[in-house]
Design brief:
This protein is mostly helical. The protein has a single domain, classed as MetI-like fold (Orthogonal Bundle), CATH 1.10.3720.10. Helices cover 69% and strands 0% of the residues. The radius of gyration is 23 Å and the shape is globular. The two termini are 30 Å apart.
Amino acid sequence: MKNVKPLDHLILMLGVLFLLLPIWIAFASSTHRPETLLGEGLQFWFGDYFWETYSAVLLDNSGFTEQVNALLMLENSLVLGLGFSVGKIIISTLAAYAIVYFRFPAGSFFFWIIFSSLLLPLEVRIIPSYKVVSDLGMLNSYTGLILPLIASATATFFFRQFYKSVPEEILEAARIDGAGPFRFFVDILLPLSRTMIAAIFIIMFVVGWNQYLWPILMTTDESYFTVVMGIKQILNDLEGNRIPQYNKALALSILALLPPVLVVVVFQRWFVKGLVESEK
């Protein structure tokens, strides 16, 4: 048994406190009235307006059309996050499978072309991407939000490296048993890849959930607004002499934090295993 080192535990607890303190302050401040936050700043303890604030954020309609609430925006973010993660996994697994197991001219060259796309962030290709989506009539739709961005060089790279580590004996055994390419992929590679799929799913779900620039360009209909856009919308609601609704913005931020945290908690064991596992 290793000796317990109090200094290590102290550093760990300080790190956890450092990470959780902003979330605590945001949650505590969301339970106060906006006048309190405007006059006294952020609060370190709970107020008396928890139910009023969160019920108003979840159920009361707002926006220019007065037809949008947090439940709708959370639903849109969930669709976007799931669409991103599932779509990227499907495309990446198929692309990596073709690169590793199919011999075709310039296969490595095409892979590095895919990988080099990491050098081009979304901001660089945002205008041509918008043009394509607009010409195809996919603005203000889930298809337009999800389909143009489901290709992922990062996920393709991870799955390629994973498939290259699968022993050749497994492929030879599948051939002897008469398994074709599709059966080998579905019955053997995908089950072996489940931990890697879980790891990629978490990463891509969080990326899709936190998208802001792409949805704000692709949607003008408030019924497709995501929760991240809703936070910004609340902060911009300063018409007339209205007091900024900082408590609602903080409450919506806490609500936006819960689904990604839940996904990470549920899949955390597979996530770690998928990133560090090398033996098949």
